[in-house]
Amino acid sequence: MDDSARSGAQALAPLLAAFDAAAEEGHFTRAAQRLGVPQSSLSRRVTTMEQLLGVALFQPVGRGVALTPQGRDLHARTRGLVRALDDAVRQVRADADPDSGLVRFGFPLTLGPVSIPSLLAQFHTRAPRIRLHLVQAHGEALAEQVREGGLDLAVMIPPPPDLPTVDLGRQRIDLHVSRTHPLARRARIDLAELAEEAFIANPPSYQLRTLLDSWCAAAGFTPRVVFEITEFETLRALVALGQGVALLPAAEVANPDLAVIPIDGERDREVGLVSGDHDSTLAVARLREFLIARRAAISG
């Protein structure tokens, strides 16, 4: 490598983190918040990188930004380098001080108001110098972030078969109807009895929707889904208003306008604590052991 190439690489190195964050966030403000720098600083770093390379890396899209074809090519080639460097720095810092460091932790949309925040508050009391970066998302989004190294740990329901997992228990799925629904007073119900009902459900990419479709098919019918929605509290609110029925895990904060009815047969799914296949820091191991010891509080 000649001197000019070497100096170019040295100039680009400190700019890659800004480029990587902006590429993943699709928004300069969020990317700056993620890196803990002013937006003006992040914008200057991206501009400097574009000037050094002689190409535009981003283009405006609405209120955010998107990668240009050249930007997509560069991100595909450098994202692994940025993550590897980040992992190496975190590992060295964590090994030097096991009571500090950063843990990137994800959990599903069906857990959150009570169980996970309560456990994380307990953990913070015991390890106040360990910082937690939290992500709440649906299962496949969490799995992808664990695989790519964006998350160190994630509670997933169910866990994917290709990632290291510790079993935390089972989550039961019940029928949810409004208090005024004719089925509201039933002690149990057979799924086949719901063939004529209108359903409110997640989109097909969600595992709960996969269960709904497969369980109904086994019962001899295709569910008539009248609302598709990703947000669970809004889903429960629509059920409470009598707009349809839903198969859901029990809410952590009970809704007095909903009746919850057990369904005949085994109607549950596995809860697991998933780890990535990259090196784990001592801070990550500490949170992992803490959650495993309190698995009953997660799966109920």
UniProtKB/TrEMBL annotation:
Keyword DNA-binding among record annotations: yes
Superkingdom: Bacteria
Family matches, as Gene3D superfamilies: 3.40.190.290, Winged helix-like DNA-binding domain superfamily/Winged helix DNA-binding domain
Cellular component per GO, a single term: protein-DNA complex
MF-aspect GO terms: DNA binding; DNA-binding transcription factor activity
Pfam families the UniProt entry points to: HTH_1, LysR_substrate
Cited InterPro entries: LysR_HTH_N, LysR_subst-bd, WH-like_DNA-bd_sf, WH_DNA-bd_sf
HTH lysR-type domain span: 15-68
Keywords from the UniProt entry: Activator, DNA-binding, Transcription, Transcription regulation
Family as reported in the entry's similarity comment: Belongs to the LysR transcriptional regulatory family.
The protein's name in its UniProt record: DNA-binding transcriptional LysR family regulator
Naturally occurring in which organism (per UniProt): Nocardia alba
